Amino acid sequence: MSREAEQALLGAILLKPEIFRRTKVVEDDFSDPRDQRIFKAMGELDADGRLPGDMALLAEALKDKQAIIYLNSLADQVGTTASWEHYDQLVREASVKRQLGNLARRIGQQVKNGAAPAEIIETSQEEIRRLNERLSGERKSLHQQIRDWLDGCSGKFNTQDIYRFFSLNDTTRKKAALMALGRLEKDGIIRRVVGGKAGWYAKVEEEDFALIDYENADDTPLDIILPFGLHRRMEWFAKGMGVIAGDQDAGKTALMFNLAHDNQGLFSEVVYIATEMGPPLLKRRLKKFCFANDYLYPDAIRGISFREPKTINYMDLIEPDAFNIIDYYELSGEQFKEVSGYFRQIYDRLNKGVCFIALQKKRGADLGRSAELALEKPLLYISLHRGGIGRIEKCKTEWTEDFRPYDIEYHYKIVGGGKLTWEKQTRAKR
After folding, report:
1. Looking at residue 75, what is its pLDDT?
2. How many CB atoms lie under 10 A from the CB of residue 419?
3. How far apart are CA 131 and CA 145, in angstroms?
4. Cα–Cα distance between 54 and 60 in angstroms, integer?
5. Residues 323 and 266: beta-carbon distance below 8 Å
6. Residue 375: what are its φ and ψ, rounded to 5°?
7. CATH label, 1-139, candidates 3.40.140.10, 1.20.1260.10, 1.10.860.10, 3.90.1150.10
8. Which of the two residues, 342 and 326, has the higher pLDDT score?
9. Which CATH architecture has domain 227-426?
């Protein structure tokens, strides 16, 4: 009867996917490995915010011809969803019986091995309590348990904290916890913490969002100097972000030096976060920059605060009301996938200020490392190509009617290691 109940329950979910979140069974309650695989695939779809009963998505997730044939046979048997709770109970009862049998065998083995009676009773009582909860259906799903745990949680936590607290030692239960965390993230209860090791989360607090008061917002454009004289063609606003992605030795730092110098006095502060230059090299580069532009060193750059990061969380170094520059944003390994999250944290930290970020670019590519992921947040994205060609890859701010950013390119030169000259030309067809 348990096999028929398992199939009937899965069939009910195929017919009415919302049953999945109401069922009290877990993957291990199914006796047939095929049913376990289907229920697991349903959970993965649900964690991704998709319908757990979608036949096409399930077939794609199973990726096994025999499993798909079996899935189709279940779909053909679907009758009604009215008795799904009865089937849910039958599946759990059969599962508890199997686990009681396993417990009895373990107790017998412990007795045979000479374990102390008190030890056997202590370990067995906890197992029996858990099985009783499974039988009554009183035990909350792991998803709900984790959500309840979050009520008393503050600050950051990681998956290992979850595993330890809920004593999740086997692979199946750990996967269930990851699915639960995925669903909580989709529901906006938690968020991933980017910029550090994988597996870290934080609870989303009420202060993490606010209504946008657009009616009282000051939409006066900022007084700012942009690359290639673009401030004459477009408007820029507070919290605006720009990306300069360039080939190696394409002049990214020279362009950033010019931006920092030209915007002194226009913001409360100019902050230059230098990630690849120690004090001697920075001094040498700044001297060349000033000499090339006939500026007096160091007076011409006294309004710039040069900072060497001691953390990989560059977003923590951003001054909310300043003109910020990150030269350059180093990315490696899995960090490429997280770049949109890093940029989001920079954006959230800004208030009246702005930030320009330099990225390395593979020679010949249009976009820098992390490609389209780094395009999401910036208002302006410029690519610099060796040989002195600059192109606008994204421009989401307001521009003058006679300006066509994607139809032009800038042919530029870096003279003496710091003086930037350019001329505008029609962009070559590709």
Report:
1. 65
2. 17
3. 17
4. 10
5. yes
6. -85, -15
7. 1.10.860.10
8. 326
9. 3-Layer(aba) Sandwich (3.40)
Distance CA 196, CA 335 (A): 9
How many whole angstroms separate alpha carbon 14 and alpha carbon 52?
Answer: 8
The pLDDT tens digits for 39-59 are: 888 877 776 667 777 777 877
Q: Where are the domains positioned within the chain?
A: 1-139, 140-209, 227-426
| Residue corresponding to tokens 């965390």 | 181
- The pLDDT assigned to 305 comes to 95
Kind and range of the H or E run holding 213? none
In angstroms, the CA 3 to CA 101 distance is: 18
Most confident segment among 6-10, 178-182, 407-411: 407-411
Q: Among 266, 247, 245, 265, which residue's Cα sits nearest to residue 256?
A: 245
| Burial tier of 229 (Cβ tally within 10 Å: 0-12, 13-18, 19+) | exposed
Using an 8 Å Cβ cutoff, are 313 and 195 in contact? yes
Domains 1-139 and 227-426 are alike in CATH topology: no
E strand or H helix at 420: strand 419-426
- Tell me whether strands 380-385 and 241-246 are parallel, antiparallel or unpaired: parallel
Cα dist from 116 to 109, 122, 208, 325, whole Å? 12, 10, 53, 67
Q: What is the CATH number of domain 140-209?
A: 1.10.10.10
Instruction: Give the type of residue at 130.
Output: R
Q: For the chain, what is the mean pLDDT?
A: 82
Which of 42-46, 86-90, 289-293, 337-341 has the lowest average pLDDT? 337-341
Q: Is residue 138 pLDDT above 60, yes or no?
A: no
**Rounded CA separation 268/351 (Å):** 12
Give strand pairing partners of 360.
246
> Which residue type does 131 have?
L
Q: Quick check: pTM over 0.70?
A: no
Cα Rg for the chain, rounded, in angstroms?
Answer: 30
Phi and psi at residue 25, to the nearest 5°? -80, 160
Bridge-based pairing state of the strands 380-385 and 323-327: unpaired
Q: Report pLDDT for 25.
A: 82
- List, for residues 241-251, the tens digit of each pLDDT value: 999 988 888 89
